[in-house]
Amino acid sequence: MKTEKSTSNIRHRRNAVLGAAFLMATSAIGPGFLTQTAVFTQNLAASFGFVILLSILLDIGAQLNIWRIIAVSERKAQDIANLVFPGAGYFLAVLIVMGGLAFNIGNVGGAGLGLNILTGVSPETGAVISAVIAIGIFIVKEAGSVMDRFAQMMGFIMIALTTYVAFRSHPPVGEAVIRTFVPEALDPIAIVTLVGGTVGGYITFAGAHRLLDAGIKGPSALPDVSRSSVSAILIASVMRIVLFLAVLGVVSQGVMLDPKNPAVTPFQHVAGSFGAIIFGVVIWAASITSVVGAAYTSVSFISGFNKQIEANRNKWIIGFIIVSTAVLVTVGRPAQVLVFVGALNGLILPIALALILLAAYRSQIVGNYRHPKILAVIGWTVAVLMAVLSAQTLVKYISTLAG
């Protein structure tokens, strides 16, 4: 009996660790992820490989710091922030929820577009159907486990289908490898966008908060936490790389990307109408998992502030999805708001990372834990670098909107 229970606990722990990694990764892989990767590949060609490599290193540096401190403190990010500076957690929660809601409008829209491609229903109808599917996850009793398995399944589907397209597009792999280490062009905005899109806003906290909810916390859990953290970045990066190669393969042949939907071009080019169907599956999977991740993580930032919210967390998550869908269906995608919040999203990472790093040296938060100096140095480097680059990008966006 004890052996069966022990085996069950081990299986639960492994599933939670893997589920947290996929939740974070698939939260990052949304419709914006697909579009940005395609556009930057067209602009930078093989040199975009260097931007991907640099973003992976920055992502891992940021995420390892955040996940480890959250785990060892056994507190969610907003509670840690409030202990560092009173009120900072509320400020962080507002930023996260604002960004999560704005991006979820785009995520629901992407899911609607996916079903439009696959079934011919209107994008609005597709968005509503997708929202109902996402809501279904949080109606069941074991919502956390269902969410984990759903994220894993969708992640595998996206990567497998995009790998097929990358293989069919015959990308110049040799040149891509060389330019990954010796780039001919470099774009700071691309770096900010990729890092912000992978670990910015709510995304980096998705897996960390999921591990807390699954009971994986404390100093003894650090090996599992670190492994899940790095795995999450690598999963998202694999998708980024295969999509980069798929796009590079067609643009290197002189094919111009569709300006209205850049990411669909390599799929259609290598497989025609069947390629469009593959893209429909990919963008739907990318969007629906981001809807789930954004809703779950955004609500996790406010649930601890009120006992009623915590007791009815799944209902609040469902409400978050309903509001996102209602805004999309009635108003559409408020482009200027999305652009502004997108730029603001990049600033959330350095703010949150700085607060978490300060918490690493507060014994009332982390107890006797000693945070590795090398991780702290890497973390502060990422925070300062992203603060400068994000501020420059935000100023540029504001100037563009004002003009």
Plain-language structure description:
By secondary structure, this protein is mainly alpha-helical. It has a single domain (13-402), classed as Amino acid/polyamine transporter I (Up-down Bundle), CATH 1.20.1740. The protein has 17 helices and no strands. It has helices at residues 2-28, 31-44, 48-73, 77-84, 88-119, 123-137, 143-168, 173-181, 188-199, 203-213, 222-251, 264-300, 307-311, 313-331, 335-359, 363-366, 373-402. The radius of gyration is 20 Å and the shape is globular.
CATH architecture assignment: Up-down Bundle
Query: Assembly state here?
Result: single chain
User: Could you say which structural class the secondary elements and strand pairing correspond to?
Assistant: mainly alpha
Q: What is the fourth-level CATH superfamily?
A: Amino acid/polyamine transporter I
* CATH class category name: Mainly Alpha
What are the segments in which pLDDT stays under 50 over at least 5 consecutive residues? none
The separation of the N and C termini measures: 70 Å
Q: What overall form do the CA principal axes indicate?
A: globular
Number of strands: 0
The description of the largest β-sheet is:
none
CATH topology: Amino acid/polyamine transporter I
